[in-house]
Known about the structure:
By secondary structure, the protein is an alpha+beta fold. The protein has four helices and five strands. The protein has a three-stranded antiparallel sheet with strand order 1-2-3, with no helix packed on it. Helix 1 crosses helix 3. The longest helix is centred in the middle third of the chain and has 24 residues, at about 55-80. It is elongated, with a radius of gyration of 18 Å. The model is unreliable at about 5-10 (pLDDT under 50).
Amino acid sequence: MTAPVAESPPGQDGGxxxxxxxxxxxxxxxxxxxxxHAAADEPATFGGTDAGPTPYEYLLMALSACTAMTVxxxxxxxxxxxxxxxxxxxxxxxxxxDCEQCATEKVGMGQVVRHVELxxxxxxxxxxxxxxxxxxxxxxxTLQRGVQVTELASPL
Length: 156
């Protein structure tokens, strides 16, 4: 099965849709964004086949990728000697129990811990500024503000 990628409805901004499609059994889900495809799943210990990251892991990957890209973009603009940046994130909650309880209880990660490693001959001031900029990445800001999810009234 291939998840379709639909364009935004006429008159709405926001770009192409990101689509997930799950079959009749199991949790393995095909994802599509523009021309990119990936899989999501649950670990075997939770009834999945571990064919891909969990949805929580995708959210964490989005945060770590955005943080790394934001730090790289800023260092490049400033001409600073950042050789590489490694961003590690984690959360303490498993996605699976939240799925079981989401119909009756408010669920969510609650807290994410992030560690940013900057590599290269940077000054102390440059390192401090890049760590400050890491907190300004768009995904981090989005998570801190919260996101309202609304249902589209008509089919795609």
